[in-house]
Amino acid sequence: MNDFVPWLAATWLSRSMRSITWLWPLCESIHFFGLALVIGGAGYFDLRLMGFMRRVPVRAAHAFMPWAIAGFAMNLVTGALFVIMAPEMYFGSIAFMAKLFFIMVAGLNAIAFETILGTRLMALAPHDDTPSSFKVVGGVSLFAWFAVLYFGRMLPYIGNGN
Amino acid sequence: MLEQLQNSAFSTWVTGSDSLLAYPTILTLHTVGLGIVVGAALLLDLRLLGVGAEIPLKDMRTLFRFFWVGFVINLISGLVLFAAEATDKAKQPVFFVKLALIAAAVVITVRIRRVAFGGSTASPGPASSTARVLAGVSLTLWAGAIVAGRLMAYLK
Hints:
The complex is a heterodimer. By secondary structure, chain A is mainly α. Chain A is 77% helix and 0% strand. In chain A, helix 3 (23-49) packs antiparallel against helix 5, helix 3 runs antiparallel to helix 8 (132-154) and helix 7 packs antiparallel against helix 8 (132-154). Chain A is elongated, with a radius of gyration of 18 Å. In chain B, 72% of the residues lie in helices and 0% in strands. Chain B has helices at residues 2-6, 9-16, 23-48, 62-84, 86-89, 93-115, 129-151. Chain B has seven helices and no strands. The interface between A and B is large, with 33 and 38 residues.
């Protein structure tokens, strides 16, 4: 890891992207827009899974998930560019590790839901309350996404010069 | 006056304190609020543009409550962030661009509430063409507000 960070920072790709001054702010803007798509789309579904907004059929609330995934993809790409442009900010950062951890929690939680509980979702009548397994999945997801946001925004401050 | 604001005990604590609870946490609250405000607005816009058309428009009205909660979080955290660096922010043209974009976006969101989500029809279905245009404008304005907000850190 000690050699990797300076190596990555010295690569042609990292140097040439850093030399484009507007690239970082552009990626940040996209990253924030993607964040809103994830919080909006996933948060909406999570709240329905937790049993709120029962007039909305669970399956219908699921319709915004592809947009949440699109937001996540935008953030995965722009996030990777941040790491390539400024590896020293991310490798060894506790906040970045925490952020990755919560992305993993949210991701595994979503995969577990879609694969294991997905069939129960299809069987659910439109206005039904959700089973407690759904409520747990929704709560974990909502918490994890806000934790991802928290550690992402706190990244420049946690463990760096404080 | 801006200088007095910036030099107040509270403002100097926000910018000068080493505590993670000062500037970093207030900034993070502002980002949490952004996620809620823009997240809710985007869902409403997407619904008008045809996503989740199974959901009756009136049943999505709850999202306006989230929208306003997020808005208040950002109004308060934004005022604190402004107070902390009042003289610098007041000199940044892009700050006023951001405020103008947000003002326009809020006006459009209120109109969307009236035009598209005010009715009581329980049936799902497509939105009117006026509503779809408003949704497109709303999406653009919120994206613009985010870009302007980000640029505040760079165009000093």
